[in-house]
Specification:
Helix content: 10-25%
Order of helices and strands: HEEEEEEEEE
Shape: globular
Number of domains: 2
Structural class: alpha+beta
Number of strands: 9
CATH superfamily of the largest domain: Superoxide dismutase, copper/zinc binding domain
Largest sheet: 9 strands, antiparallel
CATH class of the largest domain: Mainly Beta
CATH topology of the largest domain: Immunoglobulin-like
Strand content: 25-35%
Number of helices: 1
Bound molecules: copper (II) ion, zinc ion
Radius of gyration: 24 Å
CATH architecture of the largest domain: Sandwich
Length: 184
């Protein structure tokens, strides 16, 4: 009897351990599948009437936010406010059909680095002397999916610098507009 008990113990433990590790493996496989296919989105931006700015912007889910990779041409040299706006509608010649800044949480306007700001506040693009600008940045407060997701919304580049002022950064006219569409 003295030796039987440890054996019985082992017999009971082995199947229990087998079960635990297989369910963990399933969970890990599911997580891996989700990570293998992060949602991405793209916006092809066209110049508004009287302007020449064009660009392509790629959004990809990454750990801790959304990576935004943008390439622009046809800008005036210097800084240009860059925002996600409420509506994926660029039908107005001046881009105003895209509505105001995307702000699902009801914050004041701000610049990247400020904890509380519109979700759509992406700061500024900086165009060089040739009017070209690029950006590659992970925005922590941005999401692609859900109620706060930017898929289906509008993207705007402005004539002037976003200075962080209220209510929308004093960035002036809209020089390029695009719709953020899911997919590569
Ligand atoms: Cu804007
Ligand atoms: Zn804003």
């Amino acid at each position: 009897m003295f030796r039987f008990q440890p054996l019985l113990f082992a017999a009971l433990l082995i199947p229990a351990a087998g079960c635990a590790s297989s369910s963990t493996a399933v969970a890990e496989a599911t997580d891996a599948a989700a990570e293998a296919a992060p949602l991405s989105a793209r916006s092809v931006m066209s110049a508004t009437e009287g302007n020449s700015a064009t660009g392509t912007v790629q959004f990809t889910e990454v750990d801790g936010g959304v990576r935004v990779v943008a390439i622009f041409a046809g800008l005036t040299p210097g800084e240009h406010g860059f925002h996600v706006h409420e509506k994926g509608d660029c039908s107005a010649p001046d881009g105003t059909s895209a509505g105001g800044h995307f702000n699902p949480e009801g914050h004041d306007h701000g610049l990247p680095g400020m904890a509380m700001r519109h979700a759509g506040d992406l700061g500024n693009l900086v165009a060089d002397a040739d009017g070209k600008a690029s950006l590659d940045h992970v925005f922590e407060h941005l999401a692609l999916r859900g109620d706060s997701g930017v898929v289906g919304r509008g993207l705007i580049v402005h004539a002037s610098k976003d200075d962080g002022g209220q209510p929308t950064g004093n960035a002036g006219a809209r020089v390029a507009c695009g719709v953020i569409n899911a997919g590569d």
